[in-house]
Write a structure and sequence with these properties.
The complex is a heterodimer of chains A (345) and B (443). Chain A contains 16 helices and no strands. With 345 residues, chain A is mainly α. In chain B, strand 13 and strand 14 form a beta hairpin. Bound molecules: iron/sulfur cluster (SF4) (2 copies). The site of one iron/sulfur cluster (SF4) has 16 residues of chain B, from helix 12 and helix 13.
């Protein structure tokens, strides 16, 4: 027998995992929410998703070619970025917007840094942030983003129909009730009451909002699958959502402490999508045990502050982007305790 | 107390043991020519004491220990010393080896006989017999056994742990030994404990070997011994010394320390059996059980093989490798070494020979790290393999050191799980060498 034997270093067996397998599985787990979105918002949602995906893939392919880098566009990460971006816009945005957002996210958020694995921030969120900063008016139009079956709020007095918008403006009114007419204050009170009465609707998706944000139930379904596959851990979502819940309970009511409506805070807006799908993005979140806990808490605190005190009704994207930037630091200062080791001096 | 008997981290590779574990140990015919390397253990190589043309019997010393941390090697067949020259060694490189031609007489050194007084021997004599028998850890680490049973005076050992975990996929040699010769194993443990003055004897076996747990427990009862046989969850690397001590005794060996720092000595079950042979029969380590397995082997077997038998002959005894063989691993697939020639011989630490198909022999190409943290989650030592790998790639050895690179036990769990197929343990091993080199230079 004179055949050459392969000499390579151990280990000689490998788990059956790969980056593409992870990326496509995460993408697949988002499909239920995508189908939900088409059901709620109509076929236009599908076009937006497809435009986001195609634009992300083309951008990555062309830039890799231009930079003469190996083209790894088939690894699925661009598809995922495009899809997540489209989940983060209103169904009413002009069709060129998801294309521009995906282009920006991939080009500036990812390829500039050297491609997948080197990007400091979540490219989909960066694309969204770019759109929001450049065309704020177009990005925040939700008046016709009313799901099949009506919104839970059923409110048209406000300029837009996302529950968080209603929540924010009602709060504003109630907190400064002296400056508004009695009628207005009453309306605001009613609006809040209606919102709180219909948490169940929020959970199943009867809310206005971005394409992928609406149905918490469908998102959780996909997330549960990913957790089972261990593609996402429990720590970041748990501490993220937990922090928002606790803070909303303590500080969430307009005029008293410990009276906030927790379920409303959890199921309105993009918290579920953000906590399970974007904060957990592998590349841009910490790798250590404690790092992931702090990361989750940090996202939660910033989200709450933006929602409650900031200029936007929603703070999920910005809080994750900000925490992305500190993820490497968190990793650095939360090295695990080594086996048999004393705490480092 | 419901403490889970395990350690944190670890992986669950497929076991591939179903075929081998049912096969009784068979004897592999003695080789026509035995190749006996003078270095089969950690420590100084042995020095040849025979010359070309000498006649040797089985069990004769052919090379004496080259220092305290060293072990003699013995003739494993009877015949003529044909040559003393460098030959391929399973650990790579060519190593000085004593080549003996078999006269087929199978004549043993007459001193190797049962000593009825063996239990009454002094500890010093027992250690002397272990040392003379050339014992070295048979789980694969091959640390000379007489050194391990003679800790410095200030280290008090209260517990001896027998390692029957056999957590590497494919390997079934220890499993079979426990099933077929539990008494030798237990008597060996008894002797080791007597030498060390230890009171507690523990035997850890992964619970994928319920029959071995049963047999060992029954034997412990039958002999009226106070040992505890524990069935451990199946998880790689359960059989690593520090992880085993944590699982069985809930003691943590301090970072950079040795098991004796927490009053423990860990021995492989095969080594224990060999200790018994060495003390009761003055029998040197001339043969061992080797699991021959893998998808590219015609008939997987557990073989009792003379040390010095070339791999080719061992494989032949199992019907030979199939056409598809692309890789031969000595040891298990997680930590074993890929061989470049079938001419290399079985040595004291050869726990298995695993033949892989060519299609399974290549690592998929490496892609970039996606920070999935899987390597961090599985590292049984609590390291951040991802960071270590990056430091080594960028030659930042000081950073690697401050991230505790030297504490890596080279188990390979990190490389096993990495979805980007980065061979982290390979980088880490390289980095460790560099760090140690730098430390030496710095004095
Ligand atoms: S870094 Fe070392 S100890 Fe940790 S998993 Fe990798 S090989 Fe094992
Ligand atoms: S397992 Fe591989 S891809 Fe994942 S963090 Fe570790 S090195 Fe990176």
């Amino acid at each position: 027998m004179d055949k050459k034997l392969v000499v390579s270093s151990s280990p000689h067996i490998l788990i059956k995992e790969s980056t593409p397998k992870i990326m496509y599985t995460v993408t697949a787990s988002l499909i239920p929410a995508g189908i939900g979105a088409v059901y709620f918002f109509g076929i236009r949602a599908l076009w937006i998703m497809l435009i986001g995906i195609v634009s992300a893939v083309i951008t990555e392919f062309v830039i890799a070619k231009m930079l003469k880098k190996p083209v790894t566009v088939t690894d699925g990460s661009a598809v995922l970025t495009g899809l997540l971006l489209s989940y983060n816009v209103s169904v009413q945005v002009p069709l060129w917007m998801p294309a521009v957002g995906a282009f920006f996210g991939i080009a500036v958020g990812k390829m500039v840094f050297g491609g997948l694995g080197y990007n400091p921030m979540n490219p989909a969120l960066l694309g969204r942030a770019f759109l929001l900063a450049s065309w704020p008016a177009k990005m925040t139009v939700f008046d016709k983003a009313v799901p099949q079956g009506g919104t839970v709020s059923g409110i048209d007095m406000m300029t837009s129909a996302t529950p968080l918008n209603v929540y924010k403006s009602s709060h504003e009114i109630l907190a400064n009730s002296s400056q508004y007419s009695i009628e207005k204050v009453q309306q605001a009170n009613e609006a809040l009451g209606k919102l709180y009465d219909s948490i169940e609707g929020l959970f199943w998706g009867k809310i206005g909002g971005c394409i992928g944000e609406t149905s918490a139930a469908l998102l959780l379904l996909g997330a549960a699958f990913l957790m089972y596959k261990r593609y996402i851990g429990w720590k970041i979502p748990f501490f993220y959502i937990g922090t928002v819940a606790v803070l909303s309970w303590i500080f969430g009511a307009p005029d008293s402490y410990f009276g906030g409506n927790v379920l409303f805070a959890l199921f309105s807006g993009g918290l579920i999508l953000g906590a399970f799908y974007m904060a957990t993005d592998m590349v841009t979140s910490p790798v250590t045990f404690r790092g992931r806990i702090y990361f989750g808490i940090g996202c939660g605190v910033i989200t709450f502050i933006i929602r409650r005190y900031g200029g936007y009704p929603e703070g999920v994207s910005y809080s994750i982007l900000l925490m992305n930037l500190v993820a490497p630091l968190l990793d650095r200062y939360t090295q695990p305790k080594i086996f048999g080791g004393r705490k480092k001096k | 107390m419901l403490r889970k008997k395990t350690f944190t981290g670890g992986v669950h590779p497929p076991e591939f043991k179903s075929e081998g574990e049912k096969k009784k140990v068979e004897t592999c015919p003695a080789p026509k020519t035995a190749i006996i390397p003078v270095s089969q253990h950690i420590g100084a190589p042995a020095q040849p004491v025979v010359e070309r043309g000498d006649t040797v019997k089985i069990g004769d010393v052919v090379a004496k220990a080259g220092g305290f941390v060293s072990a003699p090697v013995h003739a494993t067949i009877s015949g003529k010393v044909k040559k003393i020259e460098k030959r391929p060694h399973p650990l790579g490189q060519n190593v000085l080896s004593v080549i003996i031609e078999n006269d087929q007489a199978d004549e043993w050194n007459p001193d190797i006989q049962f000593d009825e007084q063996y239990e009454k021997q002094s500890t010093a004599e027992m250690i002397q017999r272990i040392s003379a028998a050339g014992l070295a850890g048979m789980g694969g680490a091959t640390f000379p056994t007489h050194v391990k049973v003679k800790p410095p005076d200030n280290k008090k050992i209260d517990t001896v742990i027998l390692n029957g975990a056999e957590c590497e996929p494919f390997l079934t040699a220890d499993h079979r030994l426990m099933l077929e010769e539990p008494e030798r194993v237990l008597k060996g443990l008894q002797l080791i404990m007597r030498i060390l003055g230890a009171q507690t004897g523990l035997i850890g076996i992964e619970n994928n070997k319920p029959d071995a747990v049963r047999v060992m427990k029954a034997k412990v009862n039958e002999l009226g011994l106070p040992y505890k046989v524990t069935s451990l969850p199946v998880k790689y690397p359960q059989g690593a010394e520090k992880q085993l001590i944590k699982a069985l005794k809930n003691r943590k060996v301090p970072a950079g320390g040795l098991p004796m720092d927490v009053g423990c000595v860990v021995q492989n079950v095969g080594t224990a059996a060999a200790v018994y042979d060495a003390i009761a029969y003055k029998k040197p380590l001339i043969e061992r059980i080797v699991s021959v397995a893998g998808p590219a082997i015609k008939e997987p077997k557990n073989l009792l093989v003379r040390i010095g038998t070339p791999f080719a002959e061992v494989l032949e005894c199992c019907g030979g490798p199939t056409e598809e063989m692309g890789k031969l691993i000595m040891g298990g697939p997680m930590m074993g070494l890929a061989q470049y020639t079938l001419d290399a011989p079985v040595i004291k630490g050869t726990s298995g020979l695993i033949a892989m198909k060519e299609t399974q022999s290549f690592r998929p190409p490496e892609t970039v790290c996606i920070s999935c943290a899987h390597c961090v989650d599985v590292c049984p030592m609590g390291l951040v393999p991802k960071a270590l790998g990056q430091f080594v790639k960028h030659e930042r050895y000081n950073d690697a050191k401050s991230y505790h690179i030297l504490d890596c036990i080279e188990c390979g769990s990190c490389s096993y799980v990495c979805p980007a197929h980065i061979n982290l343990v390979h980088l880490v091993k390289f980095g460790k060498l560099k760090v140690i080199e730098q430390q030496k230079k710095a004095g």
